[in-house]
Here is the input.
Amino acid sequence: MNNLNKQWTTEILFNKEQIEEKIKEIAFWVNKEYANSQDLILIGLLKGCIPFLAELMKHIEVPHILDFMIASSYKGGQTSSNNIKIIMDLEQDISNKDVLIVEDIVDSGITLQKIVETLSTRKPRSLKVVTLLDKPEGRKTGFKVDHFGFIAPNKFLVGFGLDVKEKLRNLPYIGVFDKTKFDEC
Ligand code: IMP
Ligand code: MG
Here is the structure.
């Protein structure tokens, strides 16, 4: 089955051209923000960051290295407290480095709050977060991103890195997932 041709969404919010244009603007911000940095590390949060990071890098002019992390959230049953677990940690030592975390979407902010807290203890020179999408209505924390691409509605989105059951990350657009298709993907 060709999953690119199928209609998975009720609405397309951002098409390929709009996403690429926005990412160029984000790269412009990165180039300005880190113009004088000697030690920039981009940290991609796997796996949603992949299409965003790949496109962003093409336009980043500042010398930098890449590293990755996998974090997973588990909802605590009775207590309803969310625990973020680091499944895969960084390879690099980030002390005295300029760290820029690259994320696909910030919703409750719980994941990033925990990651920023953890990475701060390793004494980076600076620590910032850039996200392609920000869902401010979903916030359950006081977490604020340093830079975002698009504001997203409080709906479940798919495509360009965003998944349902680990699928549909390959869609070249970002749209509102059609929940009636849940069993088909
Ligand atoms: P937070 O901890 O609630 O901010 O969750 C952030 C993570 O949840 C993101 O990195 C995504 O992996 C996932 N997520 C949040 N909203 C969506 C969505 O609309 N579609 C797919 N994944 C999402
Ligand atoms: Mg993510």
Notes: The helical segments are 16-33, 50-57, 110-120. The pocket of inosinic acid (ligand 1) is lined by residues 48, 73, 103-111, 156-157, 162-163 (CB under 6 Å). Residues 76-80 have pLDDT under 50 and may be disordered. Residues 16-33 form the longest helix (18 residues).
